[in-house]
Amino acid sequence: MTISNCFETLRKNHQCALIPFITAGDPDLETTAKALQILDDNGADAIELGVPYSDPLADGPVIQAAATRALQRGTRLDAVLEMVAKVSPNLRSPIILFTYYNPILYRGIETFLQQIKSAGVQGLVVPDLPLEEADSLIQPANKLGIELTLLVAPTSPKSRIEAIARQSQGFIYLVSVTGVTGVREGLETRAKELLQELRAVTDKPIGVGFGISQPEHARQVKEWGADAAIVGSAFVKRLAQGTPEQGLEAIGEFCKSLKTAIQNA
């Protein structure tokens, strides 16, 4: 199922998507594979999988620490894709790969896209991709059926918001806070205003992320009119606590509680 198809089905049923994020290779790739299956079984509609990177500008301390641990264990893109290729045929949820632009350029855009497509990846988020260079990735990705989602920041001016909305594929990723990812007590109301601004210029689905860490937050973004709640650090943190088995159990329960909150909104 493509990302677009996923949102189409949910919209028809007046539902909001839940998109968890985890870091590949933390604590190890075997646990990541199990985590993808558990999230899929417990209410995830799509799953963002972060490729560990040494200079993650958009990531807060929790995800940075997870990426560092994964890199120290020797986690590399080829091994991540090998794991995804084994797991993806068993998943209902499409996988969205979250990676930075440098590793893509280093590997070569065409080669990178062919490799992630072969592994079963359906979507791509590149947080440091300049809008002005987005076309160089969007066009070849489209040919392979990979949807490249672009981010709108709270600081984005209206003209840029419109340009991002036009080019973003699958959905539009609305960053709810100024700054990096991370667990926060509450959500900034600027996200609600931005949602309304985006709604005025596009009918594409809008996912809200960065700072959503509790079921009440997920419920709130649904009530604001978002098409998806994207939850990262809160999952990464739970998966890293205790033994891998305890971490897996914790993310399963948390995923279920978020989905219930969204459905009851």
TrEMBL record:
Alphabetized Pfam families for the sequence: Trp_syntA
The keyword Lyase is assigned to this record: yes
GO molecular-function terms, A-Z: tryptophan synthase activity
Catalytic reactions of this protein: (1S,2R)-1-C-(indol-3-yl)glycerol 3-phosphate + L-serine = D-glyceraldehyde 3-phosphate + L-tryptophan + H2O
A GO CC term assigned to this protein in UniProt: cytosol
Record keywords, A-Z: Amino-acid biosynthesis, Aromatic amino acid biosynthesis, Lyase, Tryptophan biosynthesis
Record keyword Lipoprotein present: no
Active site, UniProt feature: 48 (proton acceptor), 59 (proton acceptor)
EC number: 4.2.1.20
SUPFAM superfamilies, per database record: Ribulose-phoshate binding barrel
Pathway: Amino-acid biosynthesis; L-tryptophan biosynthesis; L-tryptophan from chorismate: step 5/5
Function: The alpha subunit is responsible for the aldol cleavage of indoleglycerol phosphate to indole and glyceraldehyde 3-phosphate.
HAMAP family associated with the record: Trp_synth_alpha (MF_00131)
Subunit note: Tetramer of two alpha and two beta chains.
Family: Belongs to the TrpA family.
Name of this protein: Tryptophan synthase alpha chain
